[in-house]
Design a protein that fits this description.
With 41 residues, the protein is mostly helical. It is built from 2 helices and no strands. The radius of gyration is 13 Å and the shape is elongated.
Length: 41
């Protein structure tokens, strides 16, 4: 999914890739909650 946002080679290497993955997971969780797909907590 991250490659759709930032295609091509990773300029920052594995650290940037990990950070993008974490941020993407958080944003995805908020979006899932917003449209009613999030887990009931």
């Amino acid at each position: 999914m991250g490659k759709l946002i930032m295609p091509g080679d990773d300029p920052g290497g594995i650290i940037v890739t990990i950070i993008l993955g974490i941020v993407g997971a958080i944003v995805g969780g908020f979006l899932a909650d917003a449209i009613g797909l999030g887990a009931a907590a």
